[in-house]
C-alpha cells in the first residue's frame, strides 16, 4: 500500500506535470530546431513568437467567451487556437518579408541572423506587452480536472490523491497529434521532403527546381503553428504572462541542443529530458520517501535538492553535462 | 572578413548557427525567357562574370552543344570550367553574354526555371542529399514533375541496377561511385533535354570511371545532349563530339574530340605529350 501511495504521489507531483511540461518544451524545441535546420540560425525570437500566438488566442478566447461560446468541458481556447495560428503565421511571414528576407538576399552569414532574431525578439516582446499588458492573464475555462484528487481517493481508497488536469491531458494529446502530423509531413509529403532536401543541401535543392523562398515560407508557417500551439498549451496549463515566455526560451534552447540541433526527434527527447530533470530536482521528495522508507528513516527535511527558483540552472547543468559527453547532442544533430 | 558587414566574423559556434548545407550559389533572379530562334541547341555565348562583387572569372567564354552530341570542357585547374557550367545553369550572375537553349534566350531565368525548361545539372561536389534515401534523392530530382514519375525511376534503376538494391539506404552511406550514380540519376529524373555533368568521375576508381563513361554514352545515345567538364582529359575527349579547352576563363582551343587529341599544342600543354 505504501508503495502504491508513493507511486501515486510520484505520478501526481512529478510524472504527470513533467509529461505536460515536457510536451510543451518539445513543441517549442521543435520550432527552434526547424528554424535551425532549414533557415540555419538559432531563433531567439521563438519564445516571443509563442507569446504572440498565445496572446492572439487569449484575445480571441475572451471575445468568444463574451459571446457566450464555449466548448463545454474543454477550454474555449481550443476554438480560438486556429485564429491564433493564422495570425501568428501572418506575423512571421510579415517579419520574414520585412526583416529576414533582406539578409537572405545579402547572403548574410547565419550568425548575423541570430543577432537579427534578437532584435525581432525585443520588438515582438514589446508588441505583446503593449497589446495585452505585462501581467498574468487567465483564459482557462471548462472542466478543471479530468480526474480530481478526491475522486481518485474515494475510487481507490489510497491515502494519496492523483489529479489529472484537463489541460495536462489536452497538452499531451495535442503534442502527440502535432508531432505525428509533423513527422508525417516531413517524411511522406513532397513539400516536406523538399524542406529536408533544402536543409541537407541548399545548392542541390536549387538545381532540383525547389524554390528556396517557398521552403522558407513553409518553414515559417510550420514554426508559427508549433509556437502558437506550444504557447497556448503552456498558457492553459500554467498562466499566460508575456515575461514567462521570454524565460521559456532558455529551457527550450537547452532542450533543442541537448537533443541535437536540427534533429526533430532530438527536440522531443530533449524536451522531456529537460522537463523531467527540472521537475525531479526541484521536487520535495519528503512525501514519496516517507512512504518508501521505514518510519525510523523517514526524512525530516523537505528533501528538495534545489529550490524551484533554480530550475533554469538545472536545464543548463544538464545541457553542459550532455555537451561534455556528446557534443552533437543525444541524437546526432542531423538535417531536419 | 572584417570588411563584410554580413560576414560571420569568424564565428563557428554550431549551437547558434548551422553551417552545413549552406548555399554558395548566387542564383539569377527570376526573369522571363525571350524567343531567340536559330543557333545551336544550347549555347553560353561570350559569357563574362564572377562570384559576387569579385573579379571576372569567365572572359568572353563560349560553350555550345548540339542535339545528340557529347561536348567536353577540359583545361587546367582554376581555368573556370566549373564556373562556366554554373553560369550556364544560372547559378551566378553574368555580367555580359547570353545563354540560349532550344531557340530561347534564358539568360534571365532562375535555376529552378531552367530545370523546368529541361536542363539537368550534376555538380562536382555535394551532388546528393546525403541524409535522404536513394529513392528520396530521385524523388527530389523529379520535384518539378507533377505527373507519375515511377516509370522514369524504373528506367534509372535499369541504368544503375545497384541503386535499386540500395533504394532505402541513406545516400550518404554509399561509396563514391554509387554516389555519382545517384547524382546522375537525380538529374535524369526530370527527363531533361540536356544533361550537364561537372567532373562526374572525380574521386572514383578507374574501373568505376570506365563504367560511368559507359553510362554517360548510354545516356547520350538516347538523344540527350551531354555537356561535361572532365579532369581525365584524354579519356573524355575520346568520347567527345566536341571539345573545349579552357584556360584562365577563356576558350583556348575548340574542335572535335579527335581534332583536339591530334592537335600538337593541346597534347603538349594539356594531355601530357
Automatic annotation (TrEMBL), chain A:
GO terms for molecular function: L-isoleucine transmembrane transporter activity; L-leucine transmembrane transporter activity; L-phenylalanine transmembrane transporter activity; L-valine transmembrane transporter activity. It is a multi-pass membrane protein. Keywords: Amino-acid transport, Cell inner membrane, Cell membrane, Membrane, Transmembrane, Transmembrane helix, Transport. It comes from the Bacteria. It is found in: Cell membrane. CDD domains: TM_PBP1_LivH_like. It holds the Pfam family BPD_transp_2. The chain crosses the membrane at residues 20-39, 51-71, 77-99, 111-132, 168-186, 215-236, 305-325. InterPro entries: ABC_transp_permease, BCAA_transport_permease. GO terms for biological process: D-alanine transmembrane transport; L-alanine transport; L-isoleucine import across plasma membrane. GO terms for cellular component: plasma membrane. Belongs to the binding-protein-dependent transport system permease family. LivHM subfamily. This is Branched-chain amino acid ABC transporter permease.
Automatic annotation (TrEMBL), chain B:
InterPro entries: AAA+_ATPase, ABC_transporter-like_ATP-bd, BCAA_Transport_ATP-bd_LivF, P-loop_NTPase. It holds the Pfam family ABC_tran. GO terms for biological process: L-amino acid transport. Residues 1-12 have a biased composition (Basic and acidic residues). SUPFAM superfamilies: P-loop containing nucleoside triphosphate hydrolases (SSF52540). The keyword ATP-binding applies. SMART domains: AAA. Keywords: Amino-acid transport, ATP-binding, Nucleotide-binding, Transport. PANTHER family: BRANCHED-CHAIN AMINO ACID TRANSPORT ATP-BINDING PROTEIN LIVF-RELATED, HIGH-AFFINITY BRANCHED-CHAIN AMINO ACID TRANSPORT ATP-BINDING PROTEIN LIVF. Belongs to the ABC transporter superfamily. This is ABC transporter ATP-binding protein. It comes from Roseovarius spongiae.
Amino acid at each position: 500500500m505504501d508503495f502504491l501511495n508513493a507511486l501515486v504521489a510520484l505520478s501526481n507531483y512529478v510524472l504527470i506535470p513533467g509529461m505536460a511540461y515536457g510536451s510543451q518544451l518539445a513543441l517549442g524545441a521543435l520550432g527552434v530546431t526547424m528554424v535551425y535546420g532549414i533557415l540555419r540560425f538559432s531563433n531567439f525570437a521563438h519564445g516571443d513568437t509563442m507569446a504572440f500566438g498565445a496572446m492572439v488566442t487569449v484575445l480571441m478566447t475572451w471575445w468568444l467567451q463574451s459571446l457566450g461560446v464555449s466548448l463545454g468541458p474543454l477550454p474555449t481556447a481550443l476554438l480560438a487556437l486556429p485564429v491564433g495560428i493564422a495570425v501568428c503565421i501572418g506575423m512571421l511571414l510579415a517579419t520574414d518579408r520585412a526583416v529576414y528576407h533582406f539578409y537572405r538576399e545579402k547572403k548574410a552569414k547565419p550568425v548575423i541572423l541570430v543577432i537579427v532574431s534578437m532584435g525581432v525578439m525585443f520588438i515582438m516582446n514589446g508588441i505583446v506587452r503593449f497589446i495585452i499588458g505585462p501581467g498574468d492573464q487567465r483564459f482557462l475555462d471548462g472542466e478543471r480536472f479530468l480526474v480530481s484528487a478526491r475522486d481518485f481517493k474515494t475510487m481507490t481508497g489510497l491515502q494519496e490523491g492523483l489529479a489529472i488536469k484537463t489541460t495536462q491531458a489536452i497538452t499531451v494529446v495535442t503534442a502527440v497529434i502535432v508531432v505525428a502530423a509533423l513527422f508525417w509531413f516531413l517524411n511522406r509529403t513532397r513539400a516536406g521532403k523538399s524542406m529536408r532536401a533544402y536543409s541537407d543541401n541548399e545548392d542541390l535543392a536549387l538545381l532540383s527546381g525547389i524554390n528556396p523562398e517557398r521552403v522558407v515560407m513553409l518553414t515559417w508557417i510550420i514554426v508559427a503553428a508549433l509556437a502558437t500551439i506550444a504557447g497556448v498549451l503552456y498558457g492553459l496549463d500554467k498562466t499566460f504572462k508575456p515575461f514567462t515566455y521570454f524565460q521559456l526560451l532558455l529551457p527550450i534552447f537547452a532542450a533543442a541542443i541537448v537533443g541535437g540541433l536540427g534533429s526533430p526527434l532530438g527536440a522531443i527527447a530533449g524536451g522531456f529530458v529537460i522537463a523531467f530533470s527540472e521537475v525531479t530536482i526541484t521536487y520535495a521528495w519528503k512525501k514519496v520517501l516517507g512512504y518508501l522508507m521505514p518510519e525510523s528513516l523517514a526524512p525530516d527535511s523537505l528533501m528538495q535538492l534545489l529550490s524551484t527558483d533554480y530550475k533554469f540552472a538545472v536545464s543548463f547543468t544538464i545541457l553542459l553535462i550532455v555537451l561534455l559527453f556528446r557534443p552533437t547532442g543525444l541524437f546526432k544533430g542531423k538535417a531536419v | 572578413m572584417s570588411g563584410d558587414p554580413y560576414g560571420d566574423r569568424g564565428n563557428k559556434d554550431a549551437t547558434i548557427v548551422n553551417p552545413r548545407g549552406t548555399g554558395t550559389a548566387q542564383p539569377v533572379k527570376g526573369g522571363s525567357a525571350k524567343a531567340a530562334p536559330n543557333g545551336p541547341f544550347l549555347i553560353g555565348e561570350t559569357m563574362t562574370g564572377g562570384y559576387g562583387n569579385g573579379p571576372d572569372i569567365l572572359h568572353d567564354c563560349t560553350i555550345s552543344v548540339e542535339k545528340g552530341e557529347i561536348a567536353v570542357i577540359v583545361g587546367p585547374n582554376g581555368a573556370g570550367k566549373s564556373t562556366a557550367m554554373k553560369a550556364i545553369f544560372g547559378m551566378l550572375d553574368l555580367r555580359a553574354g547570353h545563354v540560349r537553349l532550344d531557340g530561347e534566350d534564358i539568360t534571365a531565368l532562375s535555376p529552378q526555371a531552367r530545370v523546368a525548361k529541361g536542363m539537368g545539372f550534376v555538380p562536382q561536389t555535394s551532388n546528393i542529399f546525403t541524409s535522404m534515401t536513394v529513392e528520396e534523392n530521385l524523388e527530389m530530382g523529379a520535384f518539378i514533375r507533377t505527373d507519375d514519375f515511377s516509370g522514369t525511376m524504373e528506367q534509372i534503376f535499369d541504368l544503375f541496377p545497384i541503386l535499386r538494391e540500395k533504394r532505402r539506404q541513406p545516400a550518404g552511406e554509399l561509396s563514391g561511385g554509387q554516389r555519382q550514380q545517384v547524382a546522375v540519376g537525380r538529374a535524369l529524373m526530370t527527363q531533361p533535354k540536356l544533361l550537364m555533368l561537372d567532373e562526374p568521375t572525380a574521386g572514383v576508381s578507374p574501373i568505376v570511371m570506365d563504367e560511368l563513361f559507359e553510362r554517360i554514352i548510354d545516356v547520350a545515345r538516347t538523344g540527350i545532349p551531354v555537356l561535361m567538364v572532365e579532369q581525365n582529359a584524354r579519356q573524355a575527349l575520346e568520347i567527345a563530339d566536341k571539345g573545349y579547352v579552357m584556360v584562365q576563363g577563356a576558350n583556348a582551343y575548340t574542335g572535335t574530340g579527335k581534332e583536339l587529341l591530334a592537335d600538337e599544342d593541346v597534347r603538349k600543354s594539356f594531355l601530357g605529350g
